[in-house]
Design brief:
Layout: E1 2-4, E2 10-16, H1 25-43, E3 48-52, H2 56-64, H3 66-78, E4 81-87, H4 111-127, E5 134-139, H5 145-148, H6 154-176, E6 179-184, H7 195-205, E7 210-215, H8 216-221, H9 226-236, E8 240-245, E9 247-251, H10 257-264, E10 275-279, E11 282-286, H11 289-293, E12 304-310, E13 320-322, H12 324-335, E14 344-347, H13 364-384, E15 388-389
Parallel strand pairs: 2-3, 2-14, 3-4, 4-5, 5-6, 6-7, 7-8, 8-14
Antiparallel strand pairs: 1-2, 1-15, 9-12, 9-13, 10-11, 10-12
Helix pairs in contact: 1-2, 1-13, 2-3, 2-4, 4-6, 7-9
Length: 391
């Protein structure tokens, strides 16, 4: 979906396909047929943007066979789908029964991360629509905090890898005329947990093609104020290459037994749900929701937020809610000003099948309806900010 900003530029809205597990190229094609095109049809649009997730095996298949890449581009066109952004964070196994800490490997100290991201950049340059010259990729925020924090050589290794990536992106732009930018995506528990944590390493890299991806669920989970965060990035000259529109789980009164019971329904074995609370002494947290619920690990006199991407249009029932207000505030700062801070927006609710059983979509139709409802909410927010939806 495309929108015209009042300054004349085009802002792209997509949804991320990591909600549909697929490790192979055949799986990606099945996603387009079974999920992405049906969502487009529900929205009544001739064209729908998707934030494509290409796992390692799928990316390699496309890299190794130009004919397969051309065929994928043709299939996107035939199904009314377009790709201007990729989710390069998960490497493989995102559809496994247990993902948890595995999603953070390989990290930016390992050669496979650089190689994979380079492949994604080259693929995206080929997949961009003919009238689009700019693409973006979100990626791991350097590494999970351990063992990175105990390795004195890790920061230099990661910086070297990102500098090499920037050089390759420069060469790609010169060769293809397509500008691909990569954004570190701050996430609780990682080396770069907050937007503030991103400023120093990105300043060290010091390249316009390497910036930040602002995920509004992660921003909210860490209790960051969107205005303060975005102002600091602007002051530091760090580009927001893309933003993922998502909402976290919020518990206003975690000391109440009924709140603990409601939270327990969201503690599940597949994904990591880092949980945070803000106290007078600073931010406190656990690596997963069940650790917080068990008691003792977190103070419960202040609200808790958990890294659980809840559907944008359907916050959980009381006594819980979502951080949709944070998303609204962030979006206003991102695209509501005289000029957009980013032109790539991506709805990223990958946890539909991790929701409590009674909230999970039971059919492809229900899932497509839910994704379409999220995109409709995002579209309405953009229109309210003065953007005009394009055909």
């Amino acid at each position: 979906m495309r929108f015209r900003h009042p300054d004349g530029s085009v802002v792209h809205l997509s949804y991320c396909t990591n909600v549909h597990p697929a490790e192979t190229l055949d799986g990606v094609r099945a996603q387009l047929r079974d999920h992405c095109e049906p969502v487009r049809r529900r929205l009544g649009r001739d064209r729908l943007g998707i934030g494509l997730w290409l796992a390692r095996d799928a990316a390699r298949a496309l890299t190794n066979d130009p004919a397969e890449l051309r065929a994928l581009r043709a299939e996107l066109d035939s199904r009314g789908l377009e790709v201007v952004t990729l989710n390069g964070f998960p490497y493989e196994g995102f559809g496994a029964d247990e993902v948890k800490y595995r999603v953070y490997r390989p990290d930016w100290t390992e050669p496979d991360r650089l190689a994979h991201t380079t492949d994604l950049a080259r693929l995206l340059a080929a997949l961009l629509p003919d009238d689009v010259t700019d693409g973006t990729i979100s990626t791991l925020p350097l590494a999970w905090r351990t063992p990175y924090a105990t390795d004195p050589g890790a920061p230099r290794t990661a910086r070297t890898a990102l500098t090499t990536l920037a050089q390759r992106l420069d060469a790609l732009a010169e060769l293809t005329g397509k500008s691909i930018r990569v954004g570190l995506e701050p996430e609780p528990g990682c080396t770069v947990e907050t937007t503030a944590d991103a400023i120093a390493p990105l300043t060290d890299v010091g390249h316009e093609r390497i910036g930040i991806c602002v995920d509004t669920c992660h921003l909210a989970t860490s209790f960051e104020d969107p205005g303060t965060a975005l102002d600091a990035l602007t002051a530091a000259g760090i580009p927001v290459v893309k933003s993922q529109l998502s909402a976290a789980l919020h518990a206003e009164h975690p000391h109440l037994p009924e709140v603990r019971t409601a939270l327990a329904a969201f503690a599940e074995p597949r994904f990591l749900h880092q949980t945070r609370t803000r106290t007078a002494a600073g931010l406190r947290g656990t690596d997963d929701l069940d650790e917080a619920i068990a008691g003792g690990a977190l103070p419960d006199s202040t609200p808790w937020r958990a890294h659980f991407h809840v559907p944008l249009h359907a916050p959980p029932a009381p006594p819980l809610t979502s951080t949709l207000p944070v998303l609204r505030t962030a979006l206003t700062r991102l695209v509501g000003g005289a000029a957009p801070l980013t032109r790539h927006l991506e709805v990223e609710t990958y946890t539909w099948q991790a929701l409590p059983a009674e909230l999970r979509p039971r059919t492809r139709t229900q899932l497509a309806d839910g994704i379409a409802a999220e995109l409709t909410l995002a579209r309405d927010l953009l229109v309210d900010l003065g953007l005009k939806e394009l055909p």
